[in-house]
Amino acid sequence: MPNSYGSFVWYELMTSDPKAAEAFYRDVVGWEAQAAPMGVPGMEYTLLMAGPTRVAGLMAIPAEAAAMGARPGWIGYVGVESVDAAAAKVRDLGGAIYKEPTDIPGVGRFAVVADPQGATFAMFKWQAPASDMPPAAPDAVGHVGWHELFAGDLEPAFDFYATMFGWTKADAIPMGEMGVYQLFAHDGVPIGGMMTKPAQAPKPYWNYYFNVDSVAAAIERVKRHGADIIVAPMQVPGGSWIMQGRDPQQALFALVSKSA
């Protein structure tokens, strides 16, 4: 898996019940699960696979993070050329460092940070390319098809990420009283959208959309597990269908499909 500066290169779920979360996402998204050695005593890590491709990881919330109030949630990792330099840049731009740059032996180096408005994300540099990782189309089932930031204030948030990762503005979609939904692009290809968060959202946050064959079919599986539906299936500009929810451990997730 070659590093790609400015693109999302990994996704991770930290949860209060890894086995239950694994069962949920296996059923809803269709992932297979594979245990991964971490080299850290007492730490278990599960890879979530779409066919032969590793898409994401799943682990229990570390005790130190739980003690700081961490709740179940997904985090996206953005590729950088130097994790240390990128973390310093985050700090210089007014962001926060939650996990200082740290090595994962044999895998890479990462840091967990927050933008100046408080939305959490991570940065990553792979130690070496992995030749066994076949590329996937953006709309391939089981992969992440969209990235969404609900910012405290759209324009300064966009400026931060543009400065950090070179993201550029694509289409801007008027959303009436909700403001503007600003698409952002990496290397000229739209990969997500940003907007100012609604007042009822307690803090800025990132959300990630997992590709499924059919949102209508997947939501029945979501309901079967007793998960909460936040946004019922709806069609969005461009024709895709989406839904948003909270898994049984209360981690926010979203699904997207080309057709209902």
Strands in their spatial order, largest beta sheet: 2-3-4-1-5-8-7-6
Q: How can the largest sheet be summarized?
A: 8 strands, mixed
Low-confidence stretches: none
- Report the C-alpha radius of gyration, rounded: 17 Å
Can you identify the CATH superfamily of the largest domain? 2,3-Dihydroxybiphenyl 1,2-Dioxygenase, domain 1
Say how many strands there are: 16
CATH class of the largest domain: Alpha Beta
Mean pLDDT: 93
- Percent strand: 35-45%
* Sheet/helix structural class: alpha+beta
Q: Helix count, per DSSP?
A: 5
Order of helices and strands: EHEEEHEHEEEEHEEEEHEEE
Q: How many distinct domains?
A: 2
Terminal residue distance: 32 Å
| Percent helix range | 10-25%
**How does the overall form come out from the CA principal axes?**
globular
CATH topology of the largest domain: 2,3-Dihydroxybiphenyl 1,2-Dioxygenase, domain 1
The CATH architecture category of the largest domain equals Roll
Please outline the helices and strands.
Blueprint: E1 8-15, H1 18-28, E2 32-36, E3 45-50, E4 53-60, H2 63-67, E5 73-79, H3 83-92, E6 96-104, E7 108-114, E8 120-126, E9 144-151, H4 154-165, E10 168-174, E11 180-186, E12 189-196, E13 205-211, H5 215-224, E14 228-235, E15 241-246, E16 252-257
Summarize the structure.
The strands form two sheets. The chain has an eight-stranded mixed beta sheet, with helices on one face. An eight-stranded mixed beta sheet has the order 10-11-12-9-13-16-15-14, with helices on one face.
